[in-house]
């Protein structure tokens, strides 16, 4: 019987292990923010009331569906970089910058919280971008650019609902 140690294959696609580690750390925060925002948006979709019910119910549904797909893209990029993706509520709670809601806010407060959440995810993606760019990690840069574009647009659309 052989006692030869099995090791994981060495990854060599032009990004150092040190750089991959930094990128994975940033993407883990992005994954946690995205999942937390998904959960908050879905909760608000279920519980929104008031004169804007139909508009917000549908708008929130579009957003949480997009976020659900994004969670998979971010997690799979982490896996592509050779690391396990965080995937528990405890891990997400430790990594996210998005604050949990207290109680059930009214529709206008839901919109405000979702603006803050969308902006938080965009900031997280933007913070990871220079790390990925410096490491010459174009796939991650592309993913981050797409995430920033979507979250900035969503924040603008939500913010417009708060104007008098």
TrEMBL record:
The UniProt record lists the keyword DNA-binding: yes
GO molecular function, one term: DNA binding
Keywords: DNA-binding
Keyword DNA-binding: yes
Top-level taxon: Bacteria
Pfam families documented for this protein: Ferritin (PF00210)
Chain ranges of the Ferritin/DPS domain: 25-163
PANTHER family, A to Z: DNA PROTECTION DURING STARVATION PROTEIN, GENERAL STRESS PROTEIN 20U
Family as reported in the entry's similarity comment: Belongs to the Dps family.
Protein's name in the database: Non-specific DNA-binding protein DpsA
Underlying gene: dpsA
